[in-house]
Amino acid sequence: MSTITTFDSTVESLLDLLESIQECRTQLPDFQRGWVWDDERIRNLLISVSLSYPIGAVMMLQTGNPNVRFASRPIEGVDNVNQVEPERLILDGQQRLTALFQSLKLKAPVATRDKRDKAIKRFYYIDIDKMLDPNVDREETIVSVPEDRIIRGPGGRVVLDCSDLEKECEAGMLPVNLLFDPVGLLAWQTCYFSDPARLAERSLKWQKLMMDVFPRFQQYQVPVIMLRKPTPKEAVCQVFENVNTGGVSLTVFELLTATFAAEDFKLRDDWEEKEAKLKRSREIYNKVLADISSTDFLQAVTLLATYNRRKAGDGVAVSCKRRDILQLTLADYQRWADRVTEGFIQAAQFLHEQHVFSARDLPYGTQLIPLAAIFVELGKEAHNVRVRDRIARWYWCGVLGELYGGATETRIARDVVEVVEWIRGGAEPTTVRDAHFAADRLFTLRTRNSAAYKGLHALLMREGARDFLSGVPIDIQTYYGESIDIHHIFPRDYCEKRGIEKAKYDCIMNKTPLSYKTNRMIGRDAPSVYLKKLEERKGVSAAVLDDILLV
Q1: Same domain, 122 and 36
Q2: Which end of the chain is more exposed for a tag (fewer CB within 10 A), N or C?
Q3: Distances from the Cα of 100 to the Cαs of 49, 217, 333, in angstroms?
Q4: Which residues are CB-neighbours of 279 under 8 A, at least 6 positions away?
Q5: Residue 480: which domain range?
Q6: Spans in the chain with pLDDT lower than 70
Q7: Residue 284 to residue 477: CA distance in whole angstroms
């Protein structure tokens, strides 16, 4: 029976692998992170090879699929002076292959790190006597030597000096970077045999090296899994993450950056420019956008790209899932990116109208994505009170119905379509119909971990809540100028002393927006005490206080 597979499995000699790296036929996809292995791991890897122990398979991707193009770069230590296009890209095995290439093929010291994560440079040597002694622990047979090739002990005392060829031979320390260099190895052997008094002894040792040690490196076989050329981009991403369990998760932004780089477009630079506009300008609304990520931005771009392709009749589903983002073309991105930037700005301005003034108080960061896309799609239509009222109704249904927690990609895509259609005369969106808020939920909303808690905080301010001391309605100026936050009406200490349950005194029903100054004045006093203090010491009339408390 025939089988269907997307990969081949074989073995390749270590020498061939390293030469293909040196010739730039094997490179890294640009989304791979940098070289990070420390000195101890490199030594242990070389020891494993010297024992013919397995070091694990490497996984590569055949290049040449026009739909799966990634920018590439050589392994650290290789200069691609001839701009060679790679035949394959390393998906798994970057650290091992880089360690082996730099230690075995380069004549320069290996740039690595010590146990304290301090940057160091090292050469690696075979201690010939220890390597040939079966009673010596194998961990002692590969020696890491500083850049000047001298190991020093306490007080600067020289413990090992390999600073020139003669001293290497005298110490019986063979550089591992000669094992795949026949000319260099012959020169080292000639020097090693140059002492007539030790020729017989050293000839015997060399013979043992040639029989038992050199072949373990020179004939070492590495298992290679090769993903075939037709493998789709989303599969490459999934495979990379499956094998990259020890590293940082690969983001869709990094994958798309590598894809667009193959078309000479610097996505990271473009995003940083747009991020600066969204987060770092002097506009006060930017504080709401402080936590927006590159993935959020790409999701909004993807929503609009798929939505408009669907409107054009090509039958594509409106979506912003990972696989859909990976299918974005550079033309899609360039068409929508600037408009999405403006969409997020309009979304932030709308949230200010709703009295959401900071990222900390934003109920759902994920709801920003469809909100921005809706503003882009509506364009000038959004500058209408009826339209904004409907957007607000949808927004608060999502918040108080707590519908944007967990996996939300499906709801995000559906809301963009349904809210726009609703505004243009269609049916109510599913999110509006699904929303339900039970009164008893008020007693379980206690911290900012709940979107509804943050939403009610904003709604209290929007509906006219005023600071007890200043009596000023809370807007963007007072929010930041007076350090407004949500505080207890009946203070915590007062409630605890009277045996009131934490579940009751910590819920949203016992909280209101107050300034830092007012909260400090309240302290631990009962409302009857601090309200009287406001009247007597601060000159706030009873009528004004009653008016504030009635809001």
Answers
A1: yes
A2: N
A3: 10, 11, 39
A4: 286, 289, 290, 292
A5: 464-550
A6: 1-5, 241-250, 281-282, 284-285, 537-538, 541, 546, 550-551
A7: 9
